[in-house]
Amino acid sequence: MTDMTNPQSILVTGASSGIGKACALHFDKLGFTVFAGVRRERDALSLSKLASGDLRPIQIDVTSEAQIKSASEQVTEVLGRNGLTGLVNNAGIPLGGPLEFLCIEDFRNEIEVNLIGAVSVTQAFLPLIRKARGRIVNVGSMKSCPYRRESHYI
Q1: Domain assignment of residue 107, given as a range
Q2: CA proximity to 38, closest of 53, 27, 24
Q3: Widest CA span in the chain
Q4: Is 153 noted as a catalytic residue in this protein?
């Protein structure tokens, strides 16, 4: 178990691109130890090239309980007695279009990633967040909401 000298740490899911990547790099520049959740090794390598040594890509698919548990164990090992200052639940997938035309399996997958994934990650990391009296931020988008006004064309 390593005891970090910098107690400011954050986990950002969905850090491969977009808002998650921007958040991970921003917190890295602010001096946080950043655990950047990615699903693919190539995304981890790409992100590492843009960041300092305190950004640590970590493989986490929010639909995989095994990967969530493994990520939690890895972060706990790095943090030692320190808790996690922040969790940004950013991982998500968009699904758009009129509700009547949505494939129900695609909709179920969206719920699994965007809702259940965020809850699963939060539950796994809550003990670390409590240690630091940290914060949880859930990122969402109307773009991925099948009930938005534009989706009601008949």
Answers
A1: 9-141
A2: 24
A3: 58
A4: yes
Residues pairing with 45 in the sheet: none
Please write the tens of the pLDDT for every residue from 43-85: 999 999 999 878 999 999 999 999 999 999 999 999 988 999 9
- The DSSP output letter for 147 is T
Tell me whether residue 135 is in a domain.
yes
* Count, residues in the chain: 154
Number of DSSP helices (H) and strands (E) in the chain, helices first: 5, 5
What is the Cα–Cα distance from 27 to 2, expressed in whole angstroms? 21
As a whole number of angstroms, the distance between CA 16 and CA 145 comes to: 21
Domains held by the chain: number:
1
Beta bridge partners of 140: none
Nearest-angstrom CA–CA distance, 54 and 51: 8
Residue 149 has a pLDDT of 47
First to last CA, the chain: 58
In the set 2, 66, 147, 153, the catalytic residue is 153
Contacts of 148 (CB under 8 A, 6+ apart): 96, 142
